[in-house]
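ok posting inputs for the iron/sulfur cluster job
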Amino acid sequence: MIKVIIDGKETRVPKGTTILEAARALHIPIPTLCNHPKLSPYGGCRLCLVEVKGNRHPVTSCSVPASDGMEVVTSTPLLERIRKTNIELLLSDHPNDCMVCEKAGDCTLQELAYFYGIRENRFAGERRIYEKKDANPFIERDMEKCILCGLCVRVCEEVEGVSAIDFAYRGFNAKIVPSFEKALDCEFCGQCVAVCPTGALTGKMWSYKGRQKDVRDVDTVCSYCGCGCNLTLHIRRNEVVRVSSRDDTINEGWLCAKGRFGYSFVNSPERLKTPLIKEKGTFREASWDEALDLVANKLKKIRAKHGADAIAGLSSARCTNEENYLFQKFMRAAVGTNNIDHCARL
Ligand code: SF4
Ligand code: SF4
Ligand code: SF4
Ligand code: FES
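and the output
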């Protein structure tokens, strides 16, 4: 362990801890745009600069490890001026259309602009103008809102192991692109959307359905497979308009394409709301009592005629543990057979 003093507060952290991590452990806020606690440091946005006693120039706290006895200051007039200028530079090459942006109210860039009181653009000049078309089915890519933080590139490589996107070109023309600048064609896990700090990456399915302030959050568990990832459903007017996952969950906020984008069935008008009974080749709606009586009578008849082992039950990995427990109990105790299995994964 090493001793670090940040803004006069002393702490002990394991060797290799960055200054930013040590500051966070002390609940000292440092603004960041290109840092994610689960991704490798990049040092691109220069917002996390801090002053270290004995150093002539500020250092990026996200990428510099703390050293024993280090004394750090996180906020001085110089640091705040640099941070403000960096945000102004980003905004000078940004559409600034927060009024209609999906991310408004939940955008780190907008939040920083607010806290630094930035209204005017001191850096008039050319702005990047990009075609917004991307034929992929899930992810809206508005590269004019991209601040080149590289979080999407790193999450795609380090978490998803896909490397579907990367930086291309240099300087003013630098841009995040899929291979050969074709339409995005990848796993569609949406991890890049989850980490993007601006409105550059959003879900096509949730465009104009409600921003963060408009939705109610309900935590639940994904029903697609046995992994049981934790989901947060964002609900507006009784409709699921978006799905995400919190960082502090068992799946650490990461989801697959099904969990993140496969929710339209929840609101589908074709979804069954009552049991159906098939008569003379066609289905008719029935009450639960009627349907359960029918199934119970048929199971009893089969058991009476052929024995309990003529019946088998197949449960699902999409059910909860409790439901699967009840189902096997029903098959063994009520029906009287051990013919019980499940689909491990659909
Ligand atoms: S990305 Fe953020 S700052 Fe940019 S337009 Fe959207 S809300 Fe505003
Ligand atoms: S959706 Fe997933 S696989 Fe596709 S670019 Fe984003 S992180 Fe990579
Ligand atoms: S698309 Fe988003 S996450 Fe990717 S570099 Fe641009 S701002 Fe960062
Ligand atoms: S967070 Fe450190 S440079 Fe961006």
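notes: The mean pLDDT is 95. Residues 32-35, 43-48, 60, 62 surround FE2/S2 (inorganic) cluster (ligand 4) (CB under 6 Å).
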